[in-house]
Amino acid sequence: MTLARRLAVLAAGALSATAVGSAAVPAEAAPGPPPVPPPGPGAPAAPAPPAPTTPCAPTARACVDLSAHRAWLTDGAGHVTYGPVPARGGSRSDPTPVGTFAVSWKDRDHLSRQFDNAPMPNSVFFAPGIAFHGGNPAANSNGCIHLAKKASANFFGALREGDSVQVVP
């Protein structure tokens, strides 16, 4: 094969290797698109995902959505600091009150006198006889808000007496 023919075949990309003497010469790969350089220091950043929101007023430090079975903690200015987490309120016969309340007191190892000393760990009371506390977030309560163990510890640690709690239907 003549040199001119070899160059023509190479240019067409059809020759993968050719013998020159006793050495094989690989064909050059067809050029692809140029690599995309990483963004430089002045390049705009990708847009941030939307911040989580709650169905409650921005001033609520704790928010519960009874129909969605979710709860959040916020900074009291509308920014979510924790959640959403699974949460379950009362049954039809023992409903959780809806409205805006204030945390009245807390008890890390509360036992319910009303329900045969049933344990209510990490209780944060915000209405008479109604609290966030550790329990099964998949089971209805007797009016309280059941949270998983870790979530109840976070609510207990974050909320202070007087903090606003909003419960929406």
Please tell me about this protein's structure.
By secondary structure, the chain is mainly beta. The protein folds into two domains: 1-29, no CATH class; 62-168, L,D-transpeptidase catalytic domain-like (Beta Barrel). The chain has two helices and eleven strands. Strands 6-11-3-4-5-10-9-8-7 form a nine-stranded mixed sheet. Strands 1-2 form a two-stranded antiparallel ribbon. A hairpin with a 4-residue loop joins β3 and β4 (70-74). The radius of gyration is 32 Å and the shape is elongated.
List keywords for this structure.
mainly beta; 12% helix; 169 residues; two-stranded antiparallel ribbon; nine-stranded mixed beta sheet; L,D-transpeptidase catalytic domain-like; elongated; 11 strands; 2 domains
- As for the number of domains, it is 2
Helix content: 10-25%
- Percent strand equals 35-45%
- The span between the termini is 84 Å
Strand order of the largest sheet: 6-11-3-4-5-10-9-8-7
CATH superfamily of the largest domain: L,D-transpeptidase catalytic domain-like
pLDDT averaged over residues: 83
Q: What overall form do the CA principal axes indicate?
A: elongated
The ordered H/E elements are HEEEEEEEEEEHE
CATH domain class of the largest domain: Mainly Beta
Please outline the major beta sheet: 9 strands, mixed
| β-strand number | 11
Structural class: mainly beta
Question: Do you know the CATH architecture of the largest domain?
Answer: Beta Barrel
Calculate Rg over CA atoms. 32 Å
- Low-confidence stretches are 13-27
